[in-house]
Amino acid sequence: MNMRRFWFCGVLLALMNSASGEGLRLSLLPGNEHGWIRVQGGETTNQLITLNASSNLLDWQIIAVSHGSNFTFLDPITPRLSQRFYRFDARPLRTTNDWKNQLQFPSDPFARYQGGAQNWVKFAIPLHDPARVFFADSTRFTFHYDFATARLEPFIGISPEEFERISQRNTNRELVVGSVLYPYRGNEYGIQFVSHDPLPKELVRDLFELVKSTITDAEAQPFYIPTFEQSAGAQAERAYFESNGISLNSAERWAGGDICYSSGWAIGQLKFFAATNVAGAYADGRLSPNDILIVDGVPAELPYVSGLITLTPTTANSHVAILAQSYGVPFVYLVSEAERARVLQLTNREVALQAGDAEGACRGLVVALDPPLDPTVRSNLLARKAVPEVVFAPKESFGEYIAATETLVPADIKYFGGKAANYGVLRRVIPSNSELAIAISFDLWDDFMDQVLTNGRTLRLEISNRLAEFTYPPNVGVLQTRLAGIRTLIRTGTFTTNQQAAVTNALRVFDRKRNIRFRSSTNVEDADSFSGAGLYDSYSGCLADDQDDDAQGPSVCDETEMNERGVFRAIGRVYASFYNSNAFLERLRRGVDENQAGMALLVHHSTPDETELANGVATGFWKRTALQFSGSMVTQTGAVSVANPDGTARPETVSIDVTSNLSPSVQVAEFSSLLPLGAHVMDWQDDYLELGRLLFRVAQGYGSVVTNGPEMKLDFEYKKVTPGRLELKQVRQIPPTPSSNVPPFILNQPMMFVL
Q1: How many whole angstroms separate alpha carbon 690 and alpha carbon 702?
Q2: Tell me: the pLDDT tens digits for 622-665?
Q3: Core vs surface per residue 196-206: b (16+ CB within 10 A) or e
Q4: What's the N-to-C CA distance of the chain in angstroms?
Q5: 751 pLDDT band (50/70/90 cuts)?
Q6: How many CA atoms does the CB half-sphere of 266 hold within 13 Å?
Q7: Domain 259-383: which topology?
Q8: Going by CATH, does the domain composed of 402-605 fall within 3.40.50.10380?
Q9: CATH dotted code for 4-97
Q10: Contact 495, 448 (CB under 8 A)
Q11: 706 and 639 in contact (C-beta within 8 Å)?
C-alpha cells in the first residue's frame, strides 16, 4: 500500500509551519481560548487521515481520524504538556471507513435525515479516552449501540444490557453518547447528550466544549439541546451553562415556522396562567370565555376561550387541538423564544391573535390593540364569530338496552351515540384488529334518569331544576359547584334489578375476571358538525366484583385495587361525566336542548397499561373519488398518552399516504423525545405499513356509509398491544373548521381591519 508519513513537533503556544512533498502539509496554529493547540494538515486528494501524537517521539497514539483532503484539529491535551509531537498518515478512503473524529459544517456525509427540523450525526465519547469524539456514519448506524459494539474497543460485542449500564447510568459510566443536530438553515447547530440519568453539569460543560471543537466551522453557533431526560436539570442550571458560554435551546428553534394547531383569529384580553391554575381561574372569573389564554403547557383538558397560545409544544392530534378546530379557536405555539417573551409582556392587555398560513408556513401573530378598539368596531368584529349551531341527531329509543356493535352504522348515533355507532365500521371492516364490543343504548340512560329520588322528583327533573337558571356565559364558579353536586347525585343513583340483569347478561361475552371498559358515547360528539373530543370520561369495571356477594376488596380483576370496582359503579361514573363542566358549558354555549341529548356506552375489554406497547392518534383526509387516504400518525411509546398529552414529551410523527393498491408510503417527520434519536416507537416499517393499510380500509368503510362530500377528515385512535397486535379503538369524522369570515387583520401586513 502506498503510504506517506509526516511528523511535526511543537511546544505549547509555539507557532511553527512546515510543508513539503506533493501537496502535503502539517502546521501548528494558535489555539482557542482554552489553550488547545490547533493542528492543520492534509492532502490534495480525498483521504483517510490519521493524526498521531507523542510527548517523547517514542510512544505514539492516534488522537484523530478525519476524512477528506485536509483537517484542522484542536488538541485538548496540550495545556497539560510541556511539549507535543505530531505526525499523520494519509491513506485511500474506503467504504468501510465509517467513523471519524471530526464533522464538516454546514453538512457532512455522515448526517442522516431526521425529518422535521434537522439532520443528525451520532457520536460516542469513551471516558477512558475523553479527548476524542467518535462520530458514526449515521446513514449506516441507526443506534449508538450498533456503532459502539461494532467499532469501539473495548465495547465490541457487549450485550444491550451491558451497553445501557455503562452509557445510560451515572453509576459505572464508561461512555457518553449523543448527537450533533444540523438545521436546514442558519449558521448554527445543536449538541445533545443521551442518558437516562441526568448528567452532571460539569461533565456536560466539558464534553460540550470537546464536541464543539470537532466541528470544522469555528464560526458556527452551537446550542445545547437537552434530551427529554436532561431537560429539567438543564433548565434548572441555565445560569450555570450561560456563564460558561453555553446557550440552551430546543429543536423547535429550527422549525420552519410557528406551529398552528388550529387556525383562526380572536380579539380579547391576554391572560397568562400556569396549566395547573387554569381551572381555578376559570371558576373564579379571572379567566373568561372572551379572553385569550397563554399557558405554560397544554393539559388534557382546557375550558373554552377565544384564543390559545402555548409556551411549550403539544400534539396536533390532542383532544385540546381537535376541540379548538371544532370551535374555530386559534391555537398556536410560538417557536421563537424572543417572540414568546415579547407576547408575555402583553398580558392583561387587549390583543388581536391570528394563527394561519403565511407563505406556506404557519405563523402566529399577536398584536396589542393600543389604543383600544372603538366599542362599535369591536362589536362588529366579534359579530363575525357567531357561535355555529350544533347539528346533531336527537336521541331516540332503540327499544332494547343492548346491541352488538357489528350491526351498527354511524346513522345509529341517535340510539347509541357517536363512539359506539362508529365502532361498527371497525368491527365489520377489520374484525381481527378491533376488540369485540357491545353497545348500551340511550334507553338505559333514560330509564336510569327516570328513577324517583327521596324528594319525590325524578333524577331528570332534579337535574333540570338545578340547572334551569343558567344562561351563557354563566357564573362559572356557581355552575361548577352545581355540576359537582349533580355528578354526585348520579354516581349514588341505583339501577333496578331488571336493568342489572339485562346488563350482566350482555356482559357474559367478556371475561368476568378481567376489567371491562365502559366508554362514553353521546349524540353530541363525533357528529358531522362537532367533535366533542375529550369532554366526557370512560371508566373500567370488574363484573366479578358485582357477583362475589360481598363489598370487600381487593378487586377480583386487579389485586392492586384495594376496593371493589364493579361494572355498575363504572357505568354511574360515565353517566356522571355527562355533566362535566366543560361538556355542559359547551352544550350551554351552543344552545343544545338537554332533553335531546344523553349518554350511551361502548363496552369492551380494558387494555392494561403494562400490555400497551404503543398508542397513537392518526388524522387525515379520505378522498372518496381518488380512493386515497393521506395524513399523519402520531405515536408514543407505552401508555404515554397522545390524545391527552401532559406536554413534557414530544411524540413521533409519521406522514402516511395510501392509495387503492394498499402500498402505503411513510416518512418520519419527528421522532419521539422519549426514545434515542433515530429509534421508532413501533417496528419500522412493518407496523406503520400495516397500520396505513388498516386506516385506508376503515376510511373506505366509513366513507361508504357516510356520504356527505367527496372528501372528509377522519380521526383514529390506535394501540399496539402485547405480543405485537395493532388495534384500532376509534374512528370519527372531524368537522370542518368553522368559517371565520374575513379575518380582522392579514398576516405579514400592518394591522388592517376589514369591516
Answers
A1: 18
A2: 999 999 999 999 999 998 888 777 666 788 999 999 999 999 99
A3: eebbebebbbe
A4: 80
A5: very low
A6: 27
A7: Glucose Oxidase; domain 1 (3.50.30)
A8: no
A9: 2.60.40
A10: yes
A11: no
